[in-house]
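Quick start: what a row looks like.
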Amino acid sequence: MSASAPGPADAAQLAALAAAVPELVRQLGGSVPIGTWDLEANRLRIQHRPGAGISAMYRMPAGTGFNELGATTEKIAVPGVAATTIGAGPHTPGITVSGWIHPRDPMLPDLASAADRVHVQRTWGEGERLTGLKTVAYRPLRRAVLRATFTTLGPLRIPRTVFLKVGRARAITGLRLRHELLAGTGIPVPAMLGPRTSGILALEAGRGESLGAAIRRHSGADLDPNDFIGLLDALPAGVMQLEARSAWSDSIQRYRQAATLALPHRAAELETLAARIAAHLAASDRGELVPAHGDYYDANILLEAGSISALLDLDSLGPGYRVDDLACLLGHLAILPSLGEKNREAGPALERFGAVFERHVDPRALWARSAGVALTLIAGSRGLGADTWEQVAEARLRTVEELVRRADAFA
């Protein structure tokens, strides 16, 4: 096993999270449940950042005093956070695990406000009634997205949706800057809503259905792949002045480690695939630095009547490479069938989009970077439920293999 391969250290950190829960519950003022509570089965989310640590969210049983507990092996320099050390001995320092009661994330101080129905109603209600508040994405210690639904009070009940993006203050400032940069350019991006806060950016919902939904309905046969290249062409030159972000394929080894933690019995295959991807990346043409979206995939592109109606998730907007944006879209299309039979039309869409994209960038780089994107999505299968996640992870591994073979054909 190579030095960078996940092994006992990663497994020990994952085990330490669960082992620390009883002490964290005590420190946070809760009651440790009597009897056996299967923490593995009740782990809601897991975030693995090789070199930084592992974070997870656990559902807690009735009587604990709170619904969800967050725990991490990352170092947190925030006063008052519960912490305990697991596995310390005469010759070992042990693993420090910090914990918090969700939604009081120690690195996202505004998350609790965004999850508070009274606060959300008062701040963004505009005289309407809050009828729904749901977390749609959450990376512990990093960011969260909540969907708030409001409904008019009159006899005609009209819904309105607001998305609350929660992050660290610097990230929210950068996201607001990106929305301001694209406003008025003709690129359809959601409008920002007040008030300005350091850790929350409120956005109107974009109009239309996602590209993924359009493909599920009819394979997106009426869509022109060139339109999705044209949207990237329309990004203004000012994007080049923003901070550059790494593309997904720049962190192959990191995501290979996360995938191996999810599928430890596939460690050798994952290591081989990562090496093949790295070889293709080194030998292919990435192209010139251009304005890039940075997370360009089906869920972030909305369509209405067959035309692009909204571009979402501008967090990674900045200087980048066209091949990485196109590969991000192909990589996500490639893994859609792993989510069930309803996505079977993604296969034909992948072929049509891929054939067009190959004419605009180096095909070898395109498919290798698509494989890299698919590799990053293996570990995320854990969030899909105890009954299905491993099957999905295996399907995504097979998708990575297929995309690497496509790159092989252009070597």
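That is the whole record. Confidence is low (pLDDT under 50) at residues 1-6. The longest strand covers residues 129-139.
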